[in-house]
Each structure stands twice: as structure tokens, then as C-alpha cells.
Amino acid sequence: xxxxxxxxxxxxxxxxxxxxxxxxxxxxxxxxxxxxxxxxxxxxxxxxxxxxxxxxxxxxxxxxxxxxxxxxxxxxxxxxxxxxxxxxxxxxxxxxxxxxxxxxxxxxxxxxxxxxxxxxxxxxxxxxxxxxxxxxxxxxxxxxxxxxxxxxxxxxxxxxxxxxxxxxxxxxxxxxxxxxxxxxxxxxxxxxxxxxxxxxxxxxxxxxxxxxxxxxxxxxxxxxxxxxxxxxxxxxxxxxxxxxxxxxxxxxxxxxxxxxxx
Length: 262
Hints:
The protein is of the alpha/beta class. Helices cover 27% and strands 18% of the residues. It has an 11-stranded parallel beta sheet with strand order 3-2-4-5-6-7-8-9-10-1-11, with helices on both faces. The longest helix has 14 residues, at 190-203. Residues 257-262 have low confidence and may be disordered. InterPro entries: rSAM, rSAM_sf.
């Protein structure tokens, strides 16, 4: 298996909110602070041609894209932009983004209790699937391995379910983050992470190690163990790469058989 390298730095994360109403145990609203608010997005269109459109969730798990869609459409048409929408956990399919999203990313949990423990909301696996499957845009599921304070819980079952509907999966790994409830947790053991990647490799055409994973010595040891089960490795520090931009957009590029301008 030839592993492709993706440098995600050409895709700029954009938030449609200034904060997040949730205090998710693994995130705590920390990551949104480094995102550019959508009101400032046009300042970056000369430096970036692709954008991750996300934001903080409301208490019911929805990201409030709707009021910004006319502006996003205008910018897309004017500057020929490419969008990856990360949609949270909406209760119904967000059909309103179907016309302008180039790819839709979503997180999946096969165990409702784990999801509720982390996010404080209730969703069954079918609830999550029913909110994304009706959308026409290409969809890429994400799983964060060890999201429950470094423990392996729902991951293998989630892979089995998702493989019935999708050919590509992004596997992230818990990063214990300062100023979150899980800051003192440890990342999952590499031998356990390896088993998750082995299972994914059996069931998916494309297995991606996403941008959210511990770096340094952990990553060095991890890559030695999982390289045989990995198609795409996302590394923001890589000077040599097969694609520059969000890994989900790499798949869109291949499908459309044309380059995404970055």
C-alpha cells in the first residue's frame, strides 16, 4: 500500500460562531478560539482557496450555518472557493448546505451513551446516519479513537456500521487538551489504536489518519505500527506531500478528476 501525505495547511478553518454553547469533555471550546470568524473570511480568499466551515454547536447539537449561507455562496462564486462543512449533530439533514458544500464531514458514534457522556446530547447511530445519508454532497465520516479519556469503546462497532455506507473514513486520535475536562487523560495505547486501523483497513477503500492526533514520539511510534493499514496521513509539518488542503477535499479532487486550486 502506497501511503499518500496530505498537508492540511492550505485549508483555513472558519467558524460561524464566536464560541460554543457546549463544554464537550475533549474540546471545551478551546479549538474554536483559533478559528477565523466568518465575518473576516473574505480577508483570506487571496491566501486560501479552500475552507473548513464549522463552528460551535447550539445546545441541541446544531451548527447555525443558515444565516451565513448567502454570503458563503457569494464568496464561493466570486473567488471559486471549495468548502468542507463540518456539521455537528443536527437532528435533521441540513439540506440548506447541499448546494454549496463540496464535501460534508461528520462525527459518528455507535454507542449513544458514549456520545452523551462527551457531548451531553442524545443521538442514536440511526439519528446520525439519517441526518447525513439523504444529503447529495459527498460525505466523509470521522471517528476520534479513544475519545472517552483515552479508552477504546465504540470505535470497532462504528467502523462496521459506517462501512456499509461509505468507502472512506477519517480516524482521529484523542489529544488531551489543556483547559478541557480531559486535559489529564492520556492518548489511547498505540497497540489498541493499531487494532482499530486494522479493522478499518479491512472494510474501507481509504483509511485516513486525520489532522487531530498526538504528535512527537507518539506519532513516530504510531506510524511504525499502522503504516500498513493507512492510505492517507495528514501532517501539517510535511514539506513533501501529495496534496495540500483538507484530506476530505483530496478525495473530492480525485473523484472529480480535476485539481482543487489551492
